[in-house]
Write a structure and sequence with these properties.
binds iron/sulfur cluster, 8-stranded mixed sheet, single chain, about 30% helix, about 240 residues
Length: about 240
């Protein structure tokens, strides 16, 4: 799945939580090559053509006006890296002096590599859906595991600030799975354990799914501390 144009399908004008330590706006891109059953951005992923597009010029004008208040832009979705015009789009934001954070599922290492090579990223957050052997189940599609590993390697060797993060729920993740992720990503900078929300989900069955208790999430955090420089829970 690839697109020739950048498709901005949503804009959150201010966020204090999407870019660690920075005030940012969040751009939502339409389309994604994964179908994670717990995903809550359903229309953005499945029916982006039904959502109005925000013209690029309109967004850049908005950015110019917010220069004093915003440090950066968080690119989310959907999956930003399926859009072939992403590097050109980011260059326009960088030319205006904004930091750029990319949220990605890691399925497109070619695009990620290109963005890194051109020094277009200031922070990367990559989803880790599950241990590699369970990836397809958690992503809802057959995933190219080599692409995932390649993205992880690119990020870890990039010199750019980054985090890995996993949205976890009992149906998909055991304590052993979390431990496997820790061993797999051992030595990485930052890992966030994210609480699953069973409100609106790609797979309607998941709306009835249990969530981990706060003490269980904190238990995972303690267990994973030896494997990362920093581990936190996002509840
Ligand atoms: S949660 Fe999964 S399906 Fe939803 S946008 Fe992220 S990678 Fe795509």
């Amino acid at each position: 799945m690839a697109s020739d144009t950048v498709d901005i399908k949503g804009l959150q004008k201010t966020s204090l939580i999407d870019y660690p330590g920075k005030v940012c706006c969040v751009v939502f891109f339409g389309g994604c090559d994964f179908r994670c059953p717990f995903c809550y951005n359903i229309d953005l992923v499945l029916n982006p053509e039904r959502l109005p597009t925000i013209p690029e010029e309109e967004f850049l004008e908005f950015l110019k006006k917010r220069k004093k208040w915003l440090d950066g832009v968080c690119l989310g979705g959907g999956e930003p890296c399926i859009h072939q015009d992403l590097p050109e789009f980011i260059k326009k934001m960088k030319n205006l002096g904004f930091l750029v954070k990319l949220d990605t599922n890691g399925s497109k290492p070619e695009m990620l590599g290109k963005l890194l090579k051109e020094n277009l990223l200031d922070y990367i957050a990559m989803d880790i859906k599950a241990p590699l052997e369970k990836y397809d189940n958690a992503a809802g599609v057959k995933v190219d595991k080599r692409a995932i590993q390649k993205s992880i390697d690119l990020i870890r060797n990039s010199g750019v600030d980054y985090e890995f993060r996993s949205t976890v729920l009992p149906r998909l993740h055991s304590k052993q799975d979390l431990l496997s992720i820790g061993k797999w990503l051992r030595g990485s900078r930052r890992f966030f354990i994210q609480q699953f929300r069973n409100e609106k989900t790609m797979n309607p069955e998941f709306q009835k799914e249990n969530v981990f208790k706060p003490e269980e999430l904190n238990g995972f955090k303690e267990m994973l501390k030896p494997y990362f420089k920093e581990v936190e829970v996002r509840a």
